[in-house]
Structure formats: structure tokens, C-alpha cells
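Morning. Coffee machine broken again, so started the prediction first thing and wrote up yesterday's gels while waiting. Chain of 523 residues, entered below exactly as on the submission form.
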Amino acid sequence: MSHFTFDNLVSDLTKLDAPLQSGPPMRWRRKASSGLEPGGLSPRLSNRTPGLTPNVPDSAKTVKTPGTAKTPGKSDKGLGVPQNKGRWKTPSKTPNKGGQQDRFIPNRATSDMDLAGFAIQSGEDEENVSPSKVEYRKQLGEAMNVPDNVKILSYQENKPKPAEGHTNNLQVIYSKKAYGGSGQGSNRVIPQVPERILDAPELLDDYYLNLLDWSSNNHVSVALGSSVFIWDASSGSIVQLMTMEEQGQYVSAVKWIEQGSILGVGTSQGHVELWDVSVQKRIRSMTGHAARVGSLSWNSHILSSGSRSGVIHHSDVRVADHCVGVLNSHTQDVCGLSWSPDGKYLASGGNDNILNIWNNHLGNDVTPLLSLTHHQAAVKALSWCPWQPNILASGGGTADRHIRIWNVNTGSNLSAVDAKSQVCAILWSKEYKELISGHGFSQNQLSIWKYPDLTKLTDLEGHKARVLNLAMSPDNTMVASAAADETIRIWNCFAADKTKKTVTTKPGKQKTEHVLLKASHIR
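Came back before lunch.
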């Protein structure tokens, strides 16, 4: 019988699911024996009947933890007993959902969060920082040009521009935006289709000619082959102003006087004619050029004309001996000519890839103030900034394709952009700080650029051939484009902002001024 007793003893010792007969009591048993058993214990850990409320006197429901308790022994590790040295923490008086709270939760309302945040940002107290470290921080701030109490990393300024000639193909990922307006903070929408399309048969596909202009009286002049037509943008009427007498001759340039109905006409015979459009009569014909006149520009009563021979003539239209100055600097066709708004400078661009800046001194021995050779092709597109008379925009031909902004006072190239196509014409907007350019191969589009960084805002597409000439309406809201596809398109791309454009009527009173020419006037 003794061996059966031994077998039973071995079997009892090897059973792992049997209750332990020795060792320290469980935590819940110790609490139950001390009268501190919480009311929220799970039924499987309690020896009470599940679902029944324990029969505890009211006086015993809120029993505080004794002030002193012995530290649990090492055998309690792993059972969730806090390993504190000394005393148990007094729990908060607010009970949890399961009953009396048995752990310490600090009151965060008493924490000084502002002080903690300052300590994190400042790093160390000034009292604890060594003098050498303080001096190092001071020198570092001065070297980086950072004022006191200002973070070095900030987003208040734009990223620096790369060096000239640097190309970063990844820049479009973070710099190009979906078009929704003319710039940051603007909700202006530019129509992508023209307001009107006019047929222009026999419009010469010649890059070096200037065949379109818009007058202050809202008349558009266009040279079609050997004739000049006038389109009244207000009424929609069209009249033929003149035609060349001999076969094979053609009109090579047209330009309106700044104020009035006088139109300058350049011909393939090297003549410059003046026409009074109001009475449809030629009032003068001026000779002197040895080749066709491809560019014209007015400066008050002075009409400057550039010819294929590279010579520029200044003609005073008030006197009989009209030629008051000759400029001989270009060696090839003068295809671009433009006086500045204040009349101080004349810009001339030629097929010799040179951009010349002249003063307003008349005579025959005048030398250019500046001869700029940055363009690598013919310089036809020229336009002066309307609010900064010393700022000039120029564009190059197919081999160049660049638009450049110049400060003629210093001769510096302020900015440049590769337009990716031939630049045929440029105009400034007076309503917005923007430029519009007409292009040839390969997209034959109009592009609007933001000044001064020359970021492209949008493209206006529709022409089937290169856009040769651009003209601005008298109210500076519309642009007419003449292309080699023998069409003229009117674009309402610079609609006036009524909230900005005001005119003073009486002292202390202002009213909104509406645009002079609206799209509804074009029929």
C-alpha cells in the first residue's frame, strides 16, 4: 500500500492546474483579508456570487488606504504590485468606475505647462549655461543674421532663387500650381477662348513686320497685303483705308499716334505715310529709307522708323524737312522699335541679335547708350513697363526663345525665362503686374507671365500658326492677336478689377470707374 501513497504524492506534485498549497497569498486575498477589497473585481477573481452586491456596511464603503504598509516582497514581482520604496501613495478621493481607486494619478491641472514648454524651447537655463556657450550662441546668431528670440527655421520668406543657368527638372513638382488666377491670393479667372475671331486674309507671314495696332479711339488697324483696313471695335464696322498703287508692293508696318486718329504706315518701297483716319485721307508721305520700313514708334510729334537696311530715321511730322536724326548702329533689319512712356529712351531690336538703347537726343552722330547682346536671335518683341519707365521687356526669335527684363539705367538683366518657342511680341498689362507674349513654333500660343519672377500663369491657345503681332485695347483690358493663320482674335485677358479702379470726383468722395470697352461692345 505504501507504493500507492507514493504514486498519489507524485501525481499531486506534477499537476500544474491544482491550487497552490504553499507560498504567499494572492493579491486579492490579501486585500480581502485587510478589508480593502474593491467592489469592481471580476467575479472570477472573487469568491462572492456573481451579480450580487456585496454586503458591506456603509461605513466601510469608503475606506482609505492605511498610512503605512510594508513593501511587498520579491515574490510579488510580475503580479502588478508597484515596487515602491517606503510608503504607498495615497489614492485620489475620486473613485473609478469599478470602485475605490487603488493607484496614484497626478493632478495635471497643477502642472505648469507654460513653464515646461519654455524649458523645452530654451534648452537650458541661462544660469546653468557656461559663458563660453552663451558667447558661441551669440556669435552663431550674428553670423547667420538671425535676431534674438527668432527661430532659424521659418516659412516667412520664399526659397532662394538658383544660380543663373541652373536647371532643376524637379522644380515643377512643388512650384507649378493649377491655374486659378493671376497670382497668390487672386481669384481672377482668365477666359481660355477669344471673345471674337476676325478673318484677316492675305496677312503676311513675315516675322520682321509689324502689321497690327489699336488706337486710343478704339480703332484696330491691320495691314493685309497691299491694303490697310480699319475695324471699329465699338460699332463693328470695317473700312478700307488705303491700298498700294503698284502690283507687288505691300504695307510693312502700321502705328497709331498716342492720342488722335493719325496713323503711320510703312511700305515696302521705304516710304512712311501719314493718314488721317477720321477723314480717310493721306496727309503726308515721307521718304529717305533705302529699303522697306518694318517698324514704327511715336514719341509725341516724332515718328521713328526702322528699315531693312538697319537705319533708323527720326521724322518731325510738323516741319517740311522731316528728318531730324539718323541712327546707324544695326547691320540688319530693324524689326523692333519702341519709345519709353516718358520719352527718354528708344529701344531698337534687329536681325543682328542686338538690342540697342538710345537717348532722346536727335542728330546723326548719336551712339547707343547700351548695346545688349544677350539674345541669340532677332530681337523683335519690345515693350516698356507702364509704371516703371526704365524697365524694358524683350524677346528673341527661334534660336533664342528667351524673354528678358532689363533695367536700362544700369544695363542689368533683371530676370529671364526660356519661353520654349519663338517670341514674336510682348505687351505689359496696366491693370496687373503681368506680361503677355505671342509665340511661334511650336505651340503658336499666347502666354501670360507674372512680373517680376516671370512665372507662367496660363497659355491662351487657338491660333493654328505663329502669333506675329499683339495690340492692347485703349482700356488695357483686351488684347488683339494677329497670326499667320489669317485670323485676328480678341482676348479678354486683363479684365479690370472694379474694387481697385477708382476715380476721385469730389474732395473726400470716390466712385467706381468701369471699363471703357466691354466684351459686349465687340459684335
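The mean pLDDT is 78. Going to sketch it on the whiteboard this afternoon.
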